[in-house]
């Protein structure tokens, strides 16, 4: 049954109101229906509407024409009346009128008439305006200034007319001064008469004057300073300047409005910031001499605070803001006669204006103007980008000087007793904004800026501020009172909301290289100010820790007792340890959130362009695809400071504090751990999974890099029909770059534990990190070999066609006493292939193979012998040398000493032979790095101890973390103690010297002593400059910290750079740098040579294997001799136990995770029953061959004799 059945069989009635038949075969309607009537009515209505509109338009035209005709008649009548009055004065329009009006009423009547009939398009009317202006000037001189009503109003109307005339002439391209002079003279008169009204109309007034100056400035040379100025008897430049500054000189209720418009409009004109020519300089000086720089700074600062930097359209461009900044600085310097740079930062309005303008500019504008102190002298910087000229450069660079930066806090209220804490905090926010702007804008001079802030005012300017607290404590007090610090200190999760950017995404408008953040265009919230204070404090405290030794760090007293006469500046800047604890808690929470919750903080990137649409084939798309508008990333609205910058700052400071705590404990146990934020039960498998994801991403990156290398786009003209292909290749390259960035963001999101381990590993217990390290190694072994078992790799290799060749490449004959040379010659070509199992055969001087146990192929004896030989002192140039604590580090002068050998052999320095020789030296360092990496890779302990400063480079150099630059190796004064105790003491005394450092006659040079004859130990002194021109820069009390920093950098980083880089290159080929970044220097030493804790005999006993007669039988009892051995081991002191352990395993230290992880396992087998025989060992397999002694005394004597005599493999 149909669903629509209603119970009635009757067909429903159909009604058609359209006037047409509904039957498909019916004829169409004839127009007689209702629809046709409706159509006709609508058409008639539209026709009537058109007629009404035509009628209305006709009336409007008639009305306008009647009005125009009437006005023209009235204007003509007024013009005749005006001309009649002027003719009575006896002067014509063609002549210069010098006759004043007879009365004020006559002058007013003539002015009112001319305002009614004058047309700015009529040259005759323009002549009448000039004529009136000339007579009015004479009238003012005769009758005085009219001030009563309605003069101000009519003067204002005339002024607007003059401004319009000047604007039309600039738009017409007129450049001759004679076209402007008469009207500028009249404008000058009007500004004198109505300064308040002019100030109210200041934006238009200064915009017009800006156009005039831009149009005529190039032609002013022929008029300015002439013996007989041709126009109006006035010097054109002085007339312009007088007109410009007149609203600024007369103090009215609108004077600040005039200063605001003058600064934001007129000071942005290019002519005011051109090269230092005589005319431009004279123009600037005239303006600077006439203005009040305090009112100028106050007005600009006020508008920036209230309406933002883009309140005026003239400030939309980077070039305009740069010109405003330069002119503003120049006027400020001029007011202080260019001799008081400390006065720059004495005015808070100056600080506000400069900081806002600096933050609104990309630091690439000034990139080429400063010297990169971290860059070698032979590396040149890129040329400066942007509209930089000599004048702009001079003004901006004047901000970076010791007096200006050092005096930033000199006039603050930080020591005033009557100042509230809230006022001090607010002041700290303002000053931190300026300091952070300088650090951001001048990154290459960051250390100097930090040092000047740290030192404070110089001796010549600090007499009145001697009671002020140090800068560190000033900003620290403001930091710990901020809501951000308090919130993150209590809960690390709260940092997510405080770090999220306020504006997500950006419009896809026209391309610009940089756009300031939203905080510059809107009112800056309180949170942004607090971030600035925190970041400035972190910057300063990081710098202080670089020059502060441990004694000064731990001698900090409470802030209330800081006035100690014997304390140094550095000690005054030290924080009490209790407050350092609070700081580390804050940094821990902030750093953890930055890495672990990175995906919650960062915003998603825009999608890649789609090249598959039809628009791809349009003609205009043959060009490069238009990049999307970029916004410089910011943290909390702080311009130009990205999340990576904050990550690096926090990471670097946390590492430095952790190192202090590692050397001398001052924080509670487990203070650094953040295990409560992890699920530690599944932590290790999760990290391994993240590492596998990282490997996949790196492989994809490597594929894209290969494609980029293969497809170098050729921009030369192509054949017809190939442009589409070229465009497609460009799009593919862009998409590969976007995929790479997307993969990195993905890794950041899916591998937060790896990010923590690589940047802040001390959040995780050391034993857990060691287990993760071994898991990473096993994962790599499985990928390379198919299994961690070396025998399985050999079996698979046997079935390969090139198996024999591979076996030969992994086999070496090693001569005793030539282990390193033979290993280098035979294994260096392997590269990363050294990770695979190797086969070693030791031979004597007759090339006869030694008898011995190989231990399955991974020959521990070979690795220990090679390392011992490589680090053993010799009669030639050593690869490594020892410090006073017998800790090893690369020979800093090795390269220079080898160059001396080449000179003695008369080999040209740049010859192929010399290059090959030096290349081989670096290859030896690289190979030694591979050998150490092989030991770590195989888990073999070696008795080698490296200097701490050298080990720090392993973990912090070449990493792939989010902030490798900031968390990378930073040489400090403390680390010099590990290199040269004498040099450390000398620099320490220099830093704390209370007299004049110049008495020592030091300069920024360093002298390296290079051994020229290793037989006689003769040396030659080589003097190098620590910075360009260093021989001409004396060391003073003000720059001695920079000198100390440069000296530490040279000794610890620059001098051994080639050797260290080659070693780390070899090490990284065996062990991923990201794996090493999980450990600090002491932990790395533990990985290399084992733990320094006492030897656990019971743990060793549980994990010992027995062979021969000593195999434990079914009864489960040990052999009597074995029982005696363990009794003797228990009776030994820890030093004697270590001696036995080194005798068997070649290292005196136990593995960190216990003897169960010793590879190979500790083993004991019988060696006969001769009671006079000494115990012997096979250290390659950690085997002790112990004769079956019958009594404890004999076993003890024989074992100690063998252990301390150094006998081993040779006795077997």
TrEMBL record:
Report the Pfam families cross-referenced here: HECT (PF00632)
- Keyword tRNA-binding recorded: no
Q: Which organism is it from?
A: Delitschia confertaspora ATCC 74209
Which residues constitute the catalytic centre?
1180
Q: What class of enzyme is it?
A: transferase
Q: What is this protein called?
A: HECT-type E3 ubiquitin transferase
Q: Where is this region: Disordered?
A: 1-47, 502-524, 691-718
User: Its catalytic activity?
Assistant: S-ubiquitinyl-[E2 ubiquitin-conjugating enzyme]-L-cysteine + [acceptor protein]-L-lysine = [E2 ubiquitin-conjugating enzyme]-L-cysteine + N(6)-ubiquitinyl-[acceptor protein]-L-lysine
